[in-house]
Design brief:
By secondary structure, this protein is an alpha/beta fold. GO terms for molecular function: ATP binding; hydrolase activity; RNA helicase activity.
């Protein structure tokens, strides 16, 4: 057979509308049809031999081409194409069943117990510090039975304590912990839990769902959807931003339940100041500086303590116990610590006596869907959540204030706070273990990661819902794919709450899964050997970060111990050493400036000269990455700290620089070109742009780097030719 003739006829087959229609009827949408054809064409063109019947068909098509009486037609290839497609896409044989399983258009029907009763939905809507959650909790405490569902362990723990202090026996249920109010471990009538742990089978008189706006969260939104639709309670009290009212109303319309909305206003005034802090010399007791990176936290806390002031430090990866201790230290009127440096982790879960919130920056690093790092301004919802922590009702400060560290950020912050919060448009969904098991029944040879991909690609959702991001799940599924586990156990391991950017925690999960697959219990002694317990107090920032990772490993063990009790048998012993580790981390955080100084001493000689006066403090993360690549610093993090420390000495120059350029850059350039985007994100300045333009013109004029015009190139080549002659 002529390869050219075969290829021409295959391409003709691909373009025929009748073939595409037949493919669609057999479950091949445009994307699958294209992928199947590419594979089919490659199989025919690159195989040493094809089956006899396919060879005969190809021969008839090629020989009959162009003749009046055709021996064969390209349409005759379709049965062979479909057979090949089913080999690479096995779900085609059971597409109807798979589509039914992945039909997510009626989530209310998943919860028959909730649909069997008439529930009353009460939405407590209001901003931070408006008393909305307080009123819902009062109803929770007065009920015969109740459940509180919160987004954080800290919030669940707070309600657990409040309830028991009010002589209402209440159990605590989180992913890693079970605490019973009754000594005989009988279940109490009230439960405070993290939202993922709520039961949709147990009947309650009252249920409270906190921070309902998180129903739109790309990763965890499914848990709020499940609680809202599935909790079997006579009264459901929903607390959160007014932006979620319309969505909750529409969702309740699909269940046939009415919703009552109670609006609340902020209890204490919140003022946006007309001036920025400008210098850390202007700090006052009750101030909280909010940063969006750990490096900025390290830098600012170091500069504050260099002025003889004490500060508390709170950021997301700290253990809950350490966060509470730091909050207690800051709130204590008799403690000399009057300044707080924190990330947006203070946005919920901690009661803090803050007078003034100071945004160190209003841009926050985020990771987009492709896993790329982006820098974007904080949203109105985020800004209000953080700013609202100032002037808490019942604290020593009767009103709150908010401002920025730098004057040029203040204008933009005012604009962000003046905008209305974007309404919540859709609620998250996530495939259940039962749905994935049914998929696996039809596709026994598919990996868990592939099962999830196929499920998402076939899933149909109503306009009120979306399928949550499954990247973390797939990451873990791929990581442990080579380990022999049954599907249910594999699914549980893949839903473990861990940060995939922490290598030590990920490798520990891998070791857990490997030993689990061999049916060898993960003992306390094994865990101590793996983590090198006991551990000493940290001597530098790197050691502190490692201790935080070890704390996460203990959390992971406890989380798995409630799902596989026989394989993770030493939960009590692990919880004991986790408390000791919490104390060690607290010591490290209290001495954080000493750790920073110790880390600074590990920076390579000459690092200080790397820093240019052209780069403001808020850009140190990017500069650190570039500088460490060029100069070979031993520690990127240590280098960043050194950059921040030097940045303080240059504060006056930086203030002038920022005022003169950054605001002008942000205002005078729109979206579109690469230069405009770099200017907007603060990665390029007007002065740098002018310098680049000047260098470009010089190179263009001199014809360097092949940047001369075509005519210049021709003239140059002629001159070269003459010289050669």
């Amino acid at each position: 057979l002529s390869a050219g003739e075969v290829l021409k006829n295959l391409n003709k087959f691909y373009k025929r509308k009748e073939i595409q229609r037949l493919g669609a009827e057999n479950g091949l949408d445009a994307r699958l049809f294209h992928q199947a054809f590419i594979s089919f064409r490659k199989y025919i063109m690159e195989s040493g031999s094809v089956s006899a019947d396919l060879h005969i068909i190809l021969n008839d098509i090629c020989c009959g081409a162009g003749k009046v009486c055709l021996l064969g037609h390209v349409d005759d290839l379709f049965p062979f194409f479909l057979r090949h497609a089913k080999q690479i896409f096995p779900m085609l044989d059971c597409m109807d069943d798979l589509r039914k399983i992945s039909d997510l258009r009626l989530p209310p029907n998943w919860y028959p117990d909730a649909r069997a009763i008439q529930r009353k939905i009460i939405f407590h809507a209001g901003p931070t510090n408006s008393g909305k959650t307080y009123h819902a909790i009062q109803r929770f405490l007065s009920a015969k039975s109740g459940i509180y569902c919160g987004p954080l362990k800290l919030l669940a723990h707070e309600i657990f304590q409040k309830s028991n202090d009010a002589n209402v026996p209440c159990d605590l249920v989180t992913g890693e912990e079970r605490v019973y109010a009754n000594e005989d471990a009988r279940q109490a009538s009230h439960i405070a839990c993290t939202i993922e742990m709520c039961s949709t089978n147990t009947p309650y008189e009252v249920a409270v769902i906190d921070e309902i706006q998180m129903i739109r969260d790309p990763a965890r939104g499914w848990a709020w959807t499940r609680a809202l639709l599935g909790l079997c309670a006579e009264e459901i009290h929903v607390c959160g931003e007014a932006a979620a009212i319309d969505l909750v109303t529409e969702l309740m319309y699909t269940t046939g339940e009415e919703i009552e909305v109670r609006n609340y206003k902020r209890l204490t005034p919140l003022t946006v100041l007309d001036y920025a802090l400008e210098s850390l010399d202007n700090l006052r007791p009750g101030d909280c500086i909010v940063c969006f990176s750990k490096n900025d936290i390290y830098s600012i806390s170091r500069q504050i303590e260099a002025r003889g002031l004490e500060c508390a430090v709170i950021y997301g990866s700290l253990p809950p116990g350490t966060k509470l201790e730091q909050a207690k230290k800051f709130n204590d009127p008799d403690d000399p610590c009057k300044i707080l440096v924190a990330t947006d982790a203070i946005g919920m879960g901690l009661n803090l006596c803050i007078k003034r919130i100071i945004f160190n920056s209003i841009v926050k690093p985020t990771i987009n869907e492709k896993g790329e790092k982006e820098i974007d301004s904080i949203t109105t919802s985020q800004a209000l959540q953080i700013a609202g922590r100032a002037g808490r009702y019942g604290s020593s400060f009767k009103q709150g204030e908010v401002t920025t560290m730098h004057h040029d950020d203040l204008v933009q912050l005012k604009e962000i706070l003046s905008e209305s919060v974007r309404p919540v448009k859709a609620a998250g969904l996530h495939p259940t273990p039962e749905q994935i098991e049914m998929f696996a029944y039809h596709l026994p040879d598919a990996t868990l990661s592939n099962l999830i991909d196929i499920f998402v690609s076939l899933s149909q959702v109503d306009g009120l819902y979306f399928v949550c991001n499954i990247d973390d799940f797939k990451f873990l599924a791929d990581m442990i794919q080579h380990i022999p586990l049954n599907l249910r156990s594999r699914y549980v391991f893949c839903t473990a709450p861990l940060n995939r950017k922490e290598p030590f925690v990920c490798t520990t999960l891998l070791k857990f899964a490997r030993q689990f697959s061999r049916n060898e219990p993960l003992t306390f002694d094994w865990l101590c050997r793996h983590t090198k317990w006991p551990l000493a107090a940290p001597k530098n920032i790197k050691e502190l970060v490692h201790l935080e990772a070890v704390h996460d490993v203990f959390d992971l063990y406890l989380w798995l111990s409630y799902r596989f009790m026989d394989m993770f048998p030493d939960a009590v012993l692990v919880r004991d050493i986790q408390k000791k580790l919490d104390d060690i981390i607290q010591v490290g955080v209290c001495n954080i400036t000493k750790l920073i100084r110790a880390s600074q001493s590990t920076v390579a000689p000459g690092t200080a000269e790397i820093v240019s006066e052209d780069f403001p403090l808020s850009r140190t993360k990017r500069d650190t990455r570039v500088a460490s690549g060029r100069h070979g610093a031993k520690s990127t993090e240590a280098l960043s700290i050194a950059v921040d420390v030097m940045g303080e000495r240059r504060a006056k120059n930086l203030k002038a620089y920022r005022s003169a350029t950054r605001q002008e850059d942000l205002k005078s350039h729109g979206r579109g070109s690469l230069a405009n985007r770099l200017l907007r994100e603060g990665l390029l300045t007007q002065e740098m742009l002018r310098q680049l333009e000047s260098e470009w013109h010089d190179q263009h004029r001199n014809g360097r780097y092949g940047l001369g015009s075509k005519r210049d190139d021709q003239n140059s080549s002629k001159e070269t030719g003459k010289k050669k002659k």
